[in-house]
Amino acid sequence: MSVSWLNTGDNAWQLTAATVVGLQSVPGLVVMYAGIVKKKWAINSAFMAFYAFAAVLIAWLLWAYNMGFGAQLFPFVGIPHPIASMADELNQAVIPAAKASANFPMSTMVYFQFVFAAITLIIMAGAFIGRMNFTAWMIFVPLWLTFSYTIGAFSLWGGGFLAQMGVIDYSGGYVIHLAAGVAGFVGAAVIGERSPRDRENFQPNNVLLMLVGAGILWLGWNGFNGGDPYAASRDAGAAVLNTNVATAMSLLVWTALDIKYFGKPAVIGAVQGMITGLVAITPAAGVVNGYGALIIGIVSGVVPWYTMNVLGKRLAIFRKVDDTLGVVHTHAIAGLLGGIMVGLLATKAGCAAFGLSTPGGAIDGNWHQVLLQIYGAAFIIVLNVVMTYLLLKVIGVFVPLRMPETMLEIGDDAVHGEEAYAFYGDGQRRPILGD
């Protein structure tokens, strides 16, 4: 039975966008993580992502969605409540605290927002790879979703106090990437380092598999940023184009810096540049023009490259904290840059197309927007430093956060009883005596 509010085109696009964002996680980051780590950690790294995707969905349905997008409990979080009844799922999608609605059903909105929540935890896992106790990870995922992610989501997207102040986060530069990068860095410090052997030598076991995951991540970002107008609109098209422009520019700049500094182009560096471009354009994608996207791509190629390859080797804090995949550089720093550049480069026309009353950023004379963006970033940073530290300390009372040294030496076979690649006989993990 048709209803007056349903736009089938918008619903089809939103479900498609949600699905391709889901593909960024499974299989995108699953296979990217499996390829970018040492062979002995391929299964564990992939499984951390795979588990998080499933665990977040169940928690999202039972209580967390309404904490992020439901009726207000406090100015920074909604009321915990399930959203699993058929009546809820078939009704028109509304975000009550934001006084917003969309022309598709609530079930579509819940799934769309779920894939954003899931990838946040999966991104964060990149900082913990190679030593976090899997049981501790299983407990940490729903707790961090509940006590950190939902607060950022409600504050910026669900009608909370940052949204009311006018802070802009188009598609998650703050809610997802700054949060994941900061939480990952804090968590890496609390959990502790990998084994000395792994810190000294952590060569990727399969660069081509890593590139498959990276490619899925790049193209999946079209749903990431193209889905946030909640409609198959002109702004969705602009956001998709800007996303790819910034990403391409960032990749090229990072590669050029690799050539100048290291004397050769590196595909791993190119992937890092791709990621920083994707991250930095995310808070700005639908509110800047093509020139703004180019500028964001240049900045996201230069600054995180410098913090990772120069400051990362010079500053004690970066040397001491074992952030396995450099998530603080590729996500926290890139997300922070993108959020601040929204304040500089957002146009009045872009904001209007996205449905914002904000008169653009500094480029249109609204320098106050820069200050608002800094306020928003500060809140997300403090929230994730405090919550991540407290949650891990509490979990650590009951479950070791770090694997024992014997497991760290062996890897997947000790943790899961499985190996990523079997090259013997009919596929058994060890050669049989006499073969």
UniProtKB/TrEMBL annotation:
Name of this chain's protein: Ammonium transporter
First-listed, main subcellular location of the protein, grouped into a coarse class: membrane
PANTHER family the UniProt entry points to: AMMONIUM TRANSPORTER MEP2
Family listed: Belongs to the ammonia transporter channel (TC 1.A.11.2) family.
TM ranges: 12-34, 46-65, 110-129, 136-162, 174-192, 204-224, 236-254, 266-285, 291-311, 332-355, 375-399
Gene3D superfamilies assigned: Ammonium transporter AmtB like domains (1.10.3430.10)
Bilayer topology: Multi-pass membrane protein
Keywords for this protein: Ammonia transport, Membrane, Plasmid, Transmembrane, Transmembrane helix, Transport
Family matches, as InterPro entries: Ammonium/urea_transptr, Ammonium_transpt, Ammonium_transpt_CS, NH4_transpt_AmtB-like_dom, RhesusRHD
A GO cellular component annotation in the UniProt record: plasma membrane
GO molecular function: ammonium channel activity
Coiled coil, from the record: none
Compartmental location: Cell membrane; Membrane
Superkingdom as given in the UniProt entry: Bacteria
NCBIfam families, alphabetized: amt (TIGR00836)
One Pfam family recorded for the sequence: Ammonium_transp
